[in-house]
Write a structure and sequence with these properties.
- With 269 residues, the chain is α+β, with helices and mostly antiparallel strands.
- 26% of the residues lie in helices and 22% in strands.
- It is globular, with a radius of gyration of 19 Å.
């Protein structure tokens, strides 16, 4: 049975750690925080993959296009969990958030920005922001199943075109799945490909989004967060996808099985 109420429960709450330990936030250890964040990520991923889908109305028709979640990457940045690769945003839980990598389903997100620069005001005070990047979808339309892989491809598929003059009937909405399932999602590392060093990437992030560097978050800590297993996927759906590509005899076959080092990648071979 579903335990989460969405979008209301699309938030990361670390108060449980303080309540259990009876300690102030600064006394909670990093491993405790990371374990709890992973637990909440996995719970939300299982809920979306098993019990929810994205629905779009077909133009001029009463029928629907249904997209099931296949792969989701999670991002959350707070003083206790400084995953600074996360795009800053102020958003309500369940908002769509567009960025250079694709589209997120937002967590409840609050951060103070300098109105003059648009950057995050230092590393002090309360902030917490993040969301869920959609990396792969299983599309069902008129009894036919196809697959959308890659975060930008997912974004372009969902938000392809809408009326500039009228409220669009075909806008993508997340709904309860009419055919829910049970089961735990698989997980692996998030996928990153930088054209520069980690040191330069971190420096660019601070220059673009932060007023000042966060104490303690240097290159090694940044790299540690990049290697977290915060990507969740539906292995059964990916098995069907690989069979689909094999039957189509495509020149590109995508492999989502975690490679050595527990890294999941959609790569051609």
């Amino acid at each position: 049975m579903s335990e989460l109420l969405l979008p209301e429960d699309l938030k990361i709450n670390l108060d449980c750690l303080k309540e259990k330990a009876g300690r102030e936030p600064q006394a909670i250890t990093a491993p405790e925080v990371e374990k709890e964040v992973f637990r909440q990520f996995q719970k939300i991923a299982d809920e979306l993959i098993n019990h929810y889908c994205i629905v779009k109305k077909r133009d001029g028709l009463s029928s629907e296009i249904v997209y099931h979640f296949m792969e989701l990457e999670f991002y959350y940045c707070s003083p206790e969990h400084p995953d600074v690769i996360t795009y800053p945003r102020n958003a309500e839980a369940g908002d769509w958030f567009f960025h250079a990598s694709g589209v997120d389903i937002c967590f409840e997100s609050k951060v103070e920005l300098n109105p003059a620069t648009g950057k995050i005001v230092g590393d002090q005070g309360a902030y917490g922001f993040g969301g869920i990047l959609i990396r792969a979808l299983r599309k069902q339309e008129e009894g036919k199943t196809t697959y959308i892989t890659g975060p930008l491809n997912c974004c372009y598929e969902l938000f392809d075109r809408f009326s500039a003059f009228y409220s669009p009937a075909n806008f993508p909405i997340i709904e309860k799945d009419k055919h829910p399932k049970d089961g735990a999602s698989s997980f692996c590392r998030r996928y990153f490909h930088f054209s520069t060093s980690l040191e330069n990437k971190l420096s660019n992030i601070y220059q673009e989004y932060w007023e000042r560097q966060i104490d303690g978050v240097e290159e090694s800590k940044f790299g540690d967060y990049l290697r977290k297993s915060y990507c969740f996927f539906d292995e059964e759906a990916f098995q069907a996808y690989r069979q689909y590509k094999k039957e189509e005899k495509s020149c590109k076959v995508y492999n989502a099985i975690p490679s050595k080092g527990n890294t999941c990648r959609l790569k051609t071979k």
